[in-house]
Design brief:
Layout lengths: L4 H13 L15 H12 L9 H16 L5 E5 L5 H12 L7 E5 L13 H7 L2 H7 L6 H10 L7 E5 L2 H4 L8 E6 L4 H11 L3 E9 L10 H11 L7 E2 L5 E4 L1
Parallel strand pairs: 1-2, 1-4, 2-3, 4-5
Antiparallel strand pairs: 5-7, 6-7
Helix pairs in contact: 1-3, 1-4, 3-4, 9-10
Length: 252
Amino acid sequence: MTSDPRDLYLDLLKRVLTDTVFSKEPDADDEGLQYVQEFIGHYIRGTALTMVPVTRLDNVHQCAVEVIDHQVSGDFIETGVWRGGMTIFMRAILQAYGITDRRVWVADSFEGLPEPDAEKYPAEADTHGGKVMTSVYKHFAVSLDDVRDNFARFGLLDHQVGFIKGWFKDSLPSAPITQLAIMRLDADYYESTMDALVNLYPKLSPGGYAIIDDYGEDTWTYCRRAVNDFRERESLNQPLTRVDSKCFFWQK
């Protein structure tokens, strides 16, 4: 077990943000109805501020420490933040390591998920209009005020946090971001994922990390197709590394 106070703080924060200090998180590698029920109970109806498992927070922790240690220039961003837990964690990393010259960008519509094109992306459209997504998940809509309040609860709402509100096709082209060291995409659908890649990847520094939360999903989203299409178009051949069955990343 590490004795570094920074890691002790960050490891505890992971469990607070995922609400796993006293309870067990759903296994993201599980499939089927039982997992959906556990997901709804733990995240949607619970108090967790992120719906990603601890292993994906571990991944961001490792990537962040590497870009800090190797002086890879740029800010951190997550596109699709829900209650803000992952971006709170990103800001906490900067705080723990005394980093004052990087920002964390919190990008979301803060109104839920965009409606997919049913002809081009039928599986996404079926999911988007389904009972669970509309009545239970409510399209994962969390207001900007609620996310800001969550940052403030941890004492992490300051000038190093920037909020980018709107559909990614509208908000990201004009976002005031010059350089990125970590871009974590949790955009759910094909077009949102592609919008984020097109507008943000050119700003990712060499040595930086592109993390795709839903790359391993294939029953309700075309996220993987968007990433593969983008990588092929841009002739990107960096190997994809598995975080868990759903999340993958590569280093630029």
